[in-house]
Structure formats: C-alpha cells, structure tokens
Amino acid sequence: MTQTPFTTELLAAGGPDWLTTKRRESLELFNTLEVPHEGVEAWKYTQVAVDFSELRPHGKREVVADVASLPASVQERLNGTDVGAFLVLDGPDVVYRTELPAELTAKGVIFTDLKTAVEQHADKVQQYLYSVVPAEVPDDTTIAAPGTTPSKSPDPSEGKFSALAAALWTNGAFVYVPRGVEVELPLGSFRVMSEAGTYTATRTLVVAEANSSVTFIDEQDSEDLPGTYAIGAVELVVGDGARLRYVSIQNWGKGVTHIQRQRGDVGRDATLNSLVVTMGGTLSRTEMQSYLRGQGSDSEMLALYFANDDQHFDHYTLQHHAAANAHSDLLYKGVGDDSSVGVFSGMIKVDLHAQKTDAYQKHRTLMLSSDARNYSVPQLEINANDVRCSHGSTTGPVDQEQLFFLKSRGIREEQAEKMLVTAFLEDVLTRVPLKSVVAYIEGIIAKKVGAA
Questions:
Q1: Which residue, among 166, 181, 179, has the nearest Cα to 136 in the 3D structure?
Q2: What pairs with residue 56 in β-bridges?
Q3: What residue stretches are annotated with the SUF system FeS cluster assembly SufBD core domain (predicted)?
Q4: Range from 133-147, 162-176, 278-292 carrying the lowest mean pLDDT
Q5: What is the rounded distance in angstroms from the CA atom of residue 385 to the CA atom of residue 373?
Q6: Can you tell me the mean pLDDT for 416-445?
Q7: Which residue has the higher pLDDT, 151 or 379?
Q8: Contact yes or no for 307/281 (Cβ under 8 A)
Q9: SS3 state of residue 130
Q10: Cα dist from 300 to 53, 288, 378, 381, 402, whole Å
Q11: Minimal CA–CA distance to 166: which of 138, 134, 121, 143?
C-alpha cells in the first residue's frame, strides 16, 4: 500500500543533537520503506492496513497528586503489586511515580522515565539507546554488540515499524543497574491510554551490567479505544554474568493496535528470563528476540495469549545463538476462540561457531471454536554441527478424554472446558516466580475463560 510520509513536525521537540539527528534519520527511513505485506515472510499472515499520517499523537497529560487520582484499573493493579518503585504513564506523559529506595540510589541504580534519563544521564542513554533495537532490523548474522552500529537487514521492509518507533517515541522507562548490584524487589512501568483515535510511541531501555540482577514489569492497559495505536520497542542489555527477568503484560482495550519489538542482548554466562502475555487489543504484533552473544548465556522465553471475538494476535520470535555453549528454551501457549486469528512464527538460528548449542522451541494452541484460525511456523537454521535443537508445534481442540473424565465426575461440560483451558495456560505461569504478577494474569485469564 502507499504511505503518506510523516513530517518532522511529529518528532518530539527538544533533546540533545545526537538524539534529534537519530530521530530524523529514523523518520526518513520510515518514509522510504514500504509497509510490510503478505509477500514479506515475517508478515505473511498479518497486515497493518493504516495510513499513520492520518492519526494524531495522544494528548498531553498532567501529573496527578496521588494514586487515588489514577484510573481505577491502575489503582487496582498497584494495590496488588509488590514492586520497589514504579512509573505510571498516560499516553506520552508520566502522571505518577515513586522513588527508588535510598539504598539502591546510593549503589548507583537508576530508574526513571526515558525522557528524564536523556536529560540527566545522557552518557548512559546514548551508549545503549538504539543498540539492541535499532531503527533498521539488523542482519542477524552480523548483529553488533550494544554501543556499536549493527548492519542493515536484507529485507528492509521488516524495519518499517522499528524505524517508526525510533523516530516517534516520546517517553518510556529507563533502568540502569551497575556492576554487581542486586535489586531484590521488581521495578515496574504501568502504561495506560485514554484517548481514542491517537497513537502513542514508547520505549523501554533496561541495562543490567556485569553480575547484577533486576526484575522489570512492563504493563499496558486501557478501556476500549477505537482506532488507537500503541507502538513500542524494548531494549534489554544483559551484561556478563547478569540476570534480568522481564515481564510484559498487554491488556489494551478493543480497538487498539499494538506493535512492539522486544530484543535482548545476553552476555557471557548471563541469563534473560522473559514472559510476554497478550490478552488485549484488536490487533497485536509482538516480536520477542534473544541474541545469545556470550558463551554460556541462557534465555528463557515464555508467552501466553488468549484471543477471542475478532482479535488477531501475531507473535514472531527469534532465538539467535551466536556463541558456543549457550542455552535457550521457548514455550508459547495460546487459546483461540470465536473468529480470532493466532499467528506464531519462531526461528532458532545457530551461527557457524556456536557449537554445543542447546535450544528448544515449543508452541501449543488450544482451539475452542471451528471459526478460529491458527498459523504456526516453527523453524530451524543450523550452521554448526555439534548442537542439540528441537522445535515443535501442536494445534487442536480440548482433549475429549479429559473432558469426559471431568464430566463423569459430575462437572458440567461448560465448566469442565473452562477448567481445562485454565490448566492449559497455567503450565506457563508455574515457571514464573512472581506471585503478584501470576495472580494478576490468572485474573485476566479467568475473565477471558468466563467469556469463552
């Protein structure tokens, strides 16, 4: 489709020269690239047919005095969340925040919004921003380490929305944990939107230096907002020996289109545990990628989703093994009901010298309706000869034997089916050691199952 060019007036004003230059370059790239279409393998089953130039930015929001002034959904969520500090963003603006404990600040931990970080911690932001999720999609055979310039993708259309996110982001979250520091309580960012027919572009940058550890919870929630777009990028830098747990929970209202690329760069003997939960929005495209740069690195990639009505959920994953003796494990579970569409495209890529790679990929989908559709494309690209890699995908209805067993115990068929759906998704949550997060997700699932 044709694309009316964005103009530079839409770029966020202010900021250092290097950032302004990067925004302009990204916007020029976006205007140059075509919109991904079904001829692009990575977008074969998902088309975003919209002229973004017809949209307007989400309106500005003012800081509120206390938690009681926040949307009811945010208040409810914060009351049940055990976090050390958090930000609340409404559209492009931080409307509420809590401060880090003094002992963490004394150790050099930084947690603030990205706009403030650009002003107060420019050296650290400039070093890492755009290094893991650049404007263009890097060629995965030659992706550079953070702080250096990656090469361009052989299929430039895949970089269109990355370029848009790089150009238009106005705010987001910034976390920096110095070498050897452990942050015990999670940090959190809670994003809402409150204005239909607009777009919001945000960016998350989490840096865990060598031998540090931190957990970051990234949540999105809104009422139904027709014709609204949430565009984002998440950059996770995991230094040698560091441990980072990242949780993303997307529960936008109906009418929202969600497009986000999440990528982690994992150093030597480092561990990245990630969980992506997709429950909301009308169209959601989530890219979840791990680049295992260092020997002995480890990546756990978990996800669950429940699509009903006319929701369209697309997950595109990459486990890229660039070093020897690295391990990755991907487990995706989803449910499709009504006339929904689910898409999973997952790649395990092993570079030439990445011997002793140990990689697993499993995707399972439970179909509750004959009108629902599911497309699953697990893939392997192996360039080393001493590896252990496996992938698999299953799609099917509720197990009739399990259903019969529950019915034979006096449980009504409708209730029995809901129990099986809940148990099917619970398998992922048992691997997440965050009780308050798991309880919140279970609540969302319960509402979805109740509507199934």
A1: 166
A2: 198
A3: 194-424
A4: 133-147
A5: 37
A6: 91
A7: 379
A8: no
A9: coil
A10: 38, 11, 17, 19, 29
A11: 134
If phi > 0 it is left, if psi is from -120 to 50 it is alpha, else beta; for residue 400 that is: alpha
* Half-sphere exposure (Cβ direction) of 102: Cα atoms closer than 13 Å: 0
What gap in Å lies between CA 332 and CA 362, rounded to an integer?
Answer: 6
pTM of the model: 0.93
Q: Closest by alpha carbon to 161, among 260, 84, 241, 249? A: 260
Taking the C-alpha atoms of residue 188 and residue 81, their distance in angstroms, rounded to an integer, is 9
Distance between CA atoms of residues 69 and 83, nearest Å:
19
CA 413 → CA 3, 376, 402, 416, 449, distances in Å?
Answer: 50, 28, 11, 5, 14
DSSP string, 148-167: SPPPPPSSGGGGHHHHHHHH
In the block, tokens 């993708």 appear at 153
The CA-to-CA distance between both ends of the chain, in Å, stands at 36
As a whole number of angstroms, the distance between CA 317 and CA 287 comes to: 6
Domain ranges of the chain: 14-399
Q: Which two tokens stand for residue 355?
A: 């011997």
Length of the chain: 452
Cα(323)–Cα(34) distance, integer angstroms: 33
Tokens 């509720």 belong to residue: 398
Mean pLDDT of the 113-131 span: 96
3-state helix, strand, coil in the chain (%, to 5): 25, 40, 40
* Confidence at residue 393, expressed as pLDDT on a 0 to 100 scale: 92
Given a cut of 60, whether residue 313 has pLDDT beyond it is yes
Distances (CA, A) of 205 to 66, 124, 128, 196, 380: 26, 11, 8, 27, 29
Averaged pLDDT score across all residues of the chain: 90
- DSSP-assigned states of every residue in 216-271: EEEEEEES--TTEEEEEEEEEEE-TT-EEEEEEEEEPPTTEEEEEEEEEEE-TT-E
